[in-house]
């Protein structure tokens, strides 16, 4: 499946990438194997990390946004994963489409989501 988005959180030994088939994977430059950390039925459109590198958000074409955190050992949290923190449904609005990109504020308190004609803010942390 095609890689659709890629980030490397600060102070983390691994990078994270999203695929067109809905998978989010953990990659390592020292090896050719990647680890699937999450799988969805929806295309991954964006990834962003917190300024500290301790958390990431994954955005999907269906409007789902999933939050992950790293524990002290730089591994993804084993807690309740794959639970959307907020879902957007603009399917009935002609002038709005799926989110295509995202960025985290320097404080880590806000995420800006970009679509084809609009910016939306989401306070998450």
TrEMBL record:
It is found in: Cell projection, Cilium. Belongs to the IFT172 family. One of its GO terms (cellular component) is intraciliary transport particle B. It comes from Amphimedon queenslandica. Keywords: Cell projection, Cilium, Repeat, TPR repeat, WD repeat. GO terms for biological process: intraciliary transport. PANTHER family: IFT140/172-RELATED, INTRAFLAGELLAR TRANSPORT PROTEIN 172 HOMOLOG. Signal peptide: none annotated. It comes from the Eukaryota. This is Uncharacterized protein. Its main location: other.
């Amino acid at each position: 499946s095609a890689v659709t988005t890629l980030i490397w959180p600060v102070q983390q030994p691994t990078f994270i990438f999203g695929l067109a088939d809905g998978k989010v994977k953990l990659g390592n430059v020292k090896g050719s194997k990647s680890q699937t950390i999450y799988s969805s039925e929806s295309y991954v459109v964006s990834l962003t990390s917190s300024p500290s590198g301790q958390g990431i958000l994954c955005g999907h074409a269906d409007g789902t946004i999933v939050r992950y955190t790293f524990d002290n050992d730089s591994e993804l949290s084993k807690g309740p994963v794959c639970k959307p923190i907020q879902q957007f449904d603009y399917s009935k609005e002609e002038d709005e489409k799926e989110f295509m990109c995202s960025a985290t504020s320097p404080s880590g308190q806000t995420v800006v989501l970009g679509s084809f004609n609009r910016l939306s803010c989401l306070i998450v942390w």
